[in-house]
Fold:
Amino acid sequence: MEKVKDLEIEENSSADKILRKMKDSGGFQAPHLSLAVDILEKMIKEENCVKFLSFPADIISTGARGIIKEMVKRKWFDIIITTCGTLDHDIARSFKDYYQGSFLMDDKELHKAGIHRLGNVLIPKESYGEIIEEKMRIWLNEIYSEKKDLSTYEFCWEIGKRLKEDSILYWAWKNQIPVIVPGITDGAVGYQIWQFWQDHKDFNVNVWKDEQYLSDTIWNAKKSGALVIGGGISKHHVIWWNQFKGGLDYAVYITTATELDGSLSGAQTREAISWGKIKEEAKQVNVFAEVTIVLPFIYVSLLKRLKQG
Structure:
């Protein structure tokens, strides 16, 4: 058995140095977080490994958007799978501001003031639905004039090339990293697509093209790995497709959800092993933490290890 070692942290210790030491602290989630960075480092450095990143939309309303953007800019991942709300927030925040609030604010008063609350993030109506509708009406007409049948990742690239460099979708387009949105209708952007389709029935955001792309990629992949943030459809779409190559070779889950209700969001890596979605011998770990707290430390540690700082 390995001894539990006290953490000894010097005044000038780097985040990477602290994370490395946490591996030996033996205390609850600390070694898991340390192991997660080790696994991600190996995964990103692994040649012939298809690297997935999945996350739910809510974190894009926070400062974590900047970290996701930098990961995409640095090409750490080959495929992103997310939800429609990611498009919503990435577009909205490219043009308007969100604000800091509190979980305990009076939601009735916020509603009267025309302000939405997402946790402790405040989103004025003009910073969300109104700006998304304004931009999408213009962009959909432009896209329609050039293409009438495109996958969700091609659609995301069309949006990305119309955004600024501070957005996730811009760098996904710039680096030609597919952003796949299986639930494309479930959000403000999806609603605008549906509205546009009412008068343009030959316009098709074709999810089958996404599935064909994933199929071709998975069946030809020698290895695969994933950083899975949160749960839901974006998590399941990653592990679902990877079962067809015998499972993920690397898997890092970051979640606050519990497995006790049988939910996919709470399901741990060991459950995915039973389905063949993660290999029995895979390098894998579950980190039980709120991602906006731990993602900055994971990112800065990887920057140092990958020598891209």
